[in-house]
Amino acid sequence: xxxxxxxFLSLLTAGSLFQACDDSKTYAEMxxxxxxxxxxxxxxxxxxxxxxxxxxxxxxxxxxxxxxxAYDEFVFFSSEGVYMQxxxxxxxxxxxxxxxxxxxxxxxxxxxxxxxxxxxxCTRYAETNVDTRELAAFNIPLEEYMxxxxxxxxxxxxxxxxxxxxxAGTFIEMDYVWGQYYAxxxxxxxxxxxxxxxxxxxxxxxxxxxKMGHQSAQQYVTPxxxxxxxxxxxxx
Length: 236
Prior knowledge:
Blueprint: H1 2-24, H2 27-44, E1 47-50, H3 52-57, E2 72-77, E3 82-88, H4 107-112, E4 120-129, E5 135-138, E6 156-162, E7 167-173, H5 176-182, H6 189-194, E8 202-208, H7 215-220, E9 224-233
Parallel strand pairs: 1-2
Antiparallel strand pairs: 2-3, 3-8, 4-5, 4-6, 4-9, 6-7, 8-9
């Protein structure tokens, strides 16, 4: 529990520090600091950035070190300022090792597994402050917090709204840390940007600037890195 207390103290301290920055810097200066922090993170993480055109020409696939590649590859959505790496596009409940008929993952199944308007989506993630590199929020098991099971007992669950001109998400169930610290029901727009490229049970990584983040990120002009290990439709 000492680690849990330390986590919340760190979050509160970070918030007060950013508030102090609000008093001494202009918004333009804070945006410049944010841009520099993202650039440092990309450089330090040996990330290779590609354009949306390259991404689409490559069948919306990004390379990952985990697959034996030399670097992590992120596509950059310049208008939104979001960087995305797809680790696993998702394939619902399909398991090729259990497919007795060996029929494969069909086009019909792929279409059914896409995220659409009205879906209830369960999310598992770890959120890291891009500037400080400190863990900010999470609901996945982490070794240093294994004695605080409430932190990862439940996923964050939201309702997805997808229209022709906009998308939105509203948390209907929050995980422990998000509920205690952020308490906002609005899903970060940076998360929603990824959903059209994914299917059920996907794994994606994102660098989300403050303007596409949650309420706290916008207030303190803080970019976050997300390792979202699961975007999964809730089973009835």
